[in-house]
Amino acid sequence: MPASMSLRLTPWLPLAILGFSLGYATTVLTRLPWWTLFLIAVVWIVLGVKLAWGRPLNARYRRMWPWSLVPISLAGVYVYLADSFGNVDLGAVFFHLQAGMTEHGGAGKMLSAVVYIVVVTGILWSVTWLSRHDQRWRLAERFFALLLLAANPLLYGLGQRSVAIVTDDGEWLDRRYVSPPIEEPQRTPNLLIMYLESLERTYSNPIFGDAYADLNALGEQGLVFEGIRQMDNTGWTMAGMIASQCGVPLMPAGLLHDTQFEPLTQVVPGVDCLGDILAAQGYRLSYLGGASTQFAGKGLFYRGHQFNTVKGKEDFVPDMEDPEYLNSWGLFDDTLYDLTLDEIRRLDAEDDGPWAVINLNLAGHAPSGFPSQTCQDRQGPFDGQDILYSVECSAHEARVFIEQLEREGLLDDTLVVVLSDHLTMRVSVWDQLTALDRDNTLIMLGDHIAPQRIRRDATMLDAFPTILEALGFTLDEHRAGLGASLLGEKPTLVEVHGIEVLNERLREETALQHRLWEGLAPQRRDVEESPTSQIFEAPADQTDEVSIMR
Which has the higher per-residue pLDDT, 183 or 141? Predict the structure, then answer.
């Protein structure tokens, strides 16, 4: 760089890059409004000029590489994840690396990643320039590097999972696992489960207007559950589906141990899930999703748990009237529901025993959703940002679909379950959502469902036994997996221990992880434990153990 150009750009350019980057990271990781990034940047630049950063009086140039380059890069990864998803879930990162990320719809995220790479490169250059030209920076950045490493939640999470290997008791959750039933149910109604992507019940709050109104209308006809909170390792699509169909959090197969990052061939093969239970009773099982079944192991999960029909974007597009009518993830909801309607008509016409159909829509997907053309014709133009527009679309399309099935008589003797797969990630109303007590959607409709509202402290783990009991299965102590039926009086794990304790125990758990991945992960050491040798974690737990375990 010519000397004249260098004088004009430095130290102003590195100070400005660091100032604005620090300001932006602060607004991402806190609830400060976006405009405070400019205030932080100005304060940083003024401080740098006043202290003559990069231009000290006794300047001694030294060609060196700062220790903080790697910690800064890792911090950039964390800020990117927090900016993209709101809450950084380390389990989700590892699971998607193993289960596969092909056919994802994150084209926008890829562009954002490129921008982040450019910005972080600028930060690394700025720190290097200042460290080479200012001995104060050369000394301080070493301590800054250690601080970044210690404060990075990604590395903290990795350390916790590593420590779990040698924890004194890594079987706290596994001891509470109850195998689901294999006996014939009292009746065998059909089952329709509709996962509404990211459409949490929090949107029913009046501050979000009428966005949730259609689901409120559906809820008046059936059973609404309130207080379904989000436990760790249940906060992304596959994890939410596994929690509500298997009663367990999704602990990835490889976290610094076990199978490492080998591609998965099965998904949670060690536990019986809803598909396994219904298949044993002669149900014909179908899964239809708007996105690809190759993404995040959805196809592996449903095929591995005895679903007869498993279809996603790649299966539907060749037969669509307009193959170009797609969003970046896959099918719009109006198309998906038309195809689901055809599938239910086919199953009903065969009259060959009960059927169960599960579908997963896309309209509410963060950050802005994918409203269908049907919604845009009804709601007016979409600005491409307002998630409430997409929430209203998702809720309305779901209600219209259910009403269409009712008109055709396809819901006779059928349990309908409408639920969110997980709480939403970062969206346009993120600050308003995170200021509230958030919970998931769970609504049940059917001939044997009396309209009412039930409020319980629960998680999606409890949806599993609740669905089973609503279908007519008899459960031991009203439990299955780690869940307790919300139709019974037995307490849930959250009601007994609290969500914080469950999340803490999950970070220390190893036995449940081995149970989930039995056959894929190295097997745990068998320890014969008699009832009389039960280990209690603390005196306060002993009373709870009696009601939670048998």
Answer: 141
